[in-house]
Amino acid sequence: MFSAETDLWAVAAKQYLYKLKSHSGFALGFVATQIIALFSGGIGGFSSSGSNVMVTVTRYTSAVPFIYTSIWIFVLALTLTGRSDEKKDFSLVANRTSNHLANIGVLLSAWLYGGVGTTLLMGLQRWYLYFSSEQGEVIANGFYLTGRSLALALAAILLYLLLLTAASYLIGVLIRISYLFTVLLPAVLFAWARLNGNALQRIGTFFLREPSLSLFALKVLTAALVLFGFSVLISSRLEVNG
Amino acid sequence: MIVVEAKKLGKNYGRVKGGVQAIRGLSFIMEENKIIGLIGRNGAGKTTLLKMIAGYLRPTGGMLRVFEREPFNDLTVSAKTLFVDDSMTFPLSFTLADILREAARFFPGFDAKLAEALAEYFSLNLKKSHHHLSKGTKSTFNAIIGIASHCPLTLFDEPTSGMDSSVRKDFYRALLKDYIQHPRTIILSSHLLSEVEELLEDILLIHAGAECLHLPVADLKEYAIGLRGPARNVGELAQGREILHREEFGQGNIYLVVKKNFSPERLEEARTRGVETVPIATDDLCNYLTGSKGGIDDVFRRN
Amino acid sequence: MILNPASMKPIYVQISEWLEAEILNGHLPGDERVYSQYQLAEMFNVNPATAAKGLNLLADEEIVYKQRGLGMYVAPEAQDRILAKRKERFVNGLLREVVSEAGRLGIGKEELISLIREIAREGSGERTREEERGKEKGTE
Question: Where along chain C do its domains lie?
Answer without folding.
Answer: 11-78, 82-137
